Structures are given as C-alpha cells and as structure tokens.
Amino acid sequence: MKDALFGGVNAAVLTAMTPDLSPDPARMAGHAKWLLANGCNGLGVLGTTGEANSFGLHERKQILEGLIENGIPASAMMPGTGTASLTDTVELTLHAKAQGCRGVLVLPPFYYKNPSDDGLFAWFSEVIQRVGGGIAIYLYHFPQQSAVPFSLDLIGRLLKAFPGAVKGVKDSSGDYANMKAMIDAFAKDGFEVYSGSDEYVQRILAEGGAGCITAASNANSHWGGIVYAKRTGAEADAAQQVLTATRKAATSAPLIPGLREIIARSTGDDGWRTIRPPHLKLGKAQADAVWAAWQAAGALPLPGLGVKAAAE
C-alpha cells in the first residue's frame, strides 16, 4: 500500500519502568531509538504489550511526553488511546494530537460486553466528533483481549460517516481471513490494514496490507525490516522464516514478561524485567526456556543490541 502513514514494521513497544513501577521514558526511548535504527518504520506505544491499561491517565501522558523529550519523533509514534471511558479516550487522543502524533490506536469500549454495532458506532462517533480531526484514528481489533470485535459492517459505516477520520486497523486476532476481508473491502479506498501477527508480514504486504504492529518486533525488527524492504526473493523469504519462528518463540511463554526477558538479557539491563502486576516476571525455568527458543529461531544475539552496545 502506497502512502500509508505507518506503512512498514511497527513495534508494539515495551514500557520501561523504574523499581517502584513508575514509567521510565528515558530507558524506553533508548530502546525505541534502537528499534527505529534496526528495521522499524514506526512505533506503537502504549498498547497491549506496553501495558497501557495498567497505567493511569496522567502516566500515559507522561510516557508520551517523556519519549518526545528524549528524542523520539512524535510523528513516528502511534500511541494507544482507547479506554473504557469515552472522555478519557478523547482526552488521550487530543493529547497525542497536541504532541504532534499523526495517528492513534483506539480500542473499543471494552468493559461492557456484547455491545451492538449501533452502540459502538455511537461511541466512536462521539470520539471522532469531539477530537475534531487532525489525527488519524486506527481501530484496534483484538477480540481475544477486548471481547469486542469490529465487524466489517461497522468499519464500513464509520468510513462512510467520517471520511478520512478512520485511517486503518490493527488486527491482532490472528485470523488472516479477517485481515484479508478488511483489505478486500476497504484497502482500495486507502484503509490501512496492519497485522498483529509476525507470521503474516510478507503475506499481508503482498495482498495490499500496510504492514505490521507486533509485540515480537521488540526483538525481531531487523528481519521485519528486510521483509518490508525486499518483499520477495530468497532474502525476504529467509527473513520471514525468522519472523515466524520468533513469533512462536515469543508465545512459548507469557508474552510480555518473555519479551522483557529477551531485552534484559540482550542488553545486560535487569531493569527491563520490571513489570506491573498482574503480570509477573518469569521464573528461572521459563526465562531460560524462552531464551533458548529465541536462540533456536536464529534471532540471538540481536543485531546491534548487546551488552556492549547498551553500555555505550
């Protein structure tokens, strides 16, 4: 897809924390800079992997502002701003717009289950009208986590009612048929479809999708960058095999603490293991197993990210 705002590889960035569980934007920015230098075209911050819903409203603003203060371009970031509250979602989206972000990723209101498409349309209509334009809205389709899916009919209604406001979707369902249906229905009109699953990167690009926004990109972005640049051929095929293998490795343990373990061992920075409850650090057996799985996938050591690089 041409002219996609976040076309390419976007990491769903881990949120660094201090020992007292406060956000640590400086450490997070260091990781973000490495990602942008190693295959990432953009950064999905404050999403599921970033534990956004474990942070309060003021903390989420602090993290975004801190990243910008530490040298991460606002234009490279797609912050998650969706909450169960209409007014909090609007406030976070307006804040992201004021910082210079080009787009935000918005969960549906997820506390009340089984809302109708009419109810979701009304909710998003309020968000879009209150935000008032100037920033692209990306829908976050993750029914396994939110329990509130986006139907094709709902997406079509939003696109018709608010031309240019809803720019795309991140599909974390793992259901490629659903991603393809979104591409077939809406990509011709510039709607950007991003896979949340690394195993589909090459395929979604070939079929008209915009790229990916994935958790494993925290550590496999080097190979994602190759797939995005090359698309086809032996080098792209080999890189896609690494993406597929690392996705399997990442999901062999609890995803977020497992990725924190990989970054902690790769940098020599134990602080990356700090995580907010209800998530917990991995035990030694799980930590050793997930490290071994990433090694078996052919991804370790991570290019340019080692203890020496971190110390410098």
Automatic annotation (TrEMBL):
The active site is at Y140 (proton donor/acceptor), K170 (schiff-base intermediate with substrate). GO terms for molecular function: 4-hydroxy-tetrahydrodipicolinate synthase activity. It holds the Pfam family DHDPS. Pyruvate binds at T49, I213. It comes from the Bacteria. The keyword Lyase applies. Keywords: Lyase. SUPFAM superfamilies: Aldolase (SSF51569). PANTHER family: BLR3884 PROTEIN, DIHYDRODIPICOLINATE SYNTHASE. Belongs to the DapA family. This is 4-hydroxy-tetrahydrodipicolinate synthase.
